[in-house]
Amino acid sequence: MFPDAVFRDSCWDIMLLCFSGQLADRRICVKQLHNELDQSNTSLLRRIQELEDAGMIRRERDDLDGRRTVVRLTDSAVAAMSRFFQLIGEGIPR
User: Fold this and answer.
1) What is the pLDDT of residue 22?
2) Which pLDDT score is estimated for 92?
3) From 9, 22, 42, 57, which residue has the greatest number of CB atoms within 10 Å?
4) What is the count of structural domains for the chain?
């Protein structure tokens, strides 16, 4: 369902934060990820690059503030995350 890169270091946390942001229709910028994960910029940017190389996220300039970079899940990552949580939900007894 996911490439191996998703489960390295804080990559899964980045995926969760981006998925949560997209569900709430919120922009998630690199600085927000940095604050949430309390990582060095170098480590965070390395994880973002790994996820981008794996086709899970994309970076875009924020159209409201060109100084910021927004991180979003790709369509295939959103589909994988949705499916993942659907499968978890089906496994939980009601």
Assistant:
1) 93
2) 62
3) 57
4) 1
The 3-state secondary structure of the chain reads CCCHHHHCCCHHHHHHHHHHHHHCCCCCEHHHHHHHHCCCHHHHHHHHHHHHHCCCEEEEECCCCCCCEEEEECHHHHHHHHHHHHHHHHHCCC
Q: Which of 69, 64, 78, 76 is nearest to 48 (CA)?
A: 69
pLDDT higher than 70, residue 69: yes
For residues 62 and 42, what is the distance between their CA atoms, to the nearest angstrom? 21
- Rounded CA gap, 81 and 67, in Å? 29
What CATH number does the domain containing 66 carry?
A: 1.10.10.10
Give the model confidence (pLDDT) of 20-56 as tens digits: 999 999 999 999 999 999 889 999 999 999 999 999 9
Indicate the pairing of strand 57-61 with strand 69-73. antiparallel
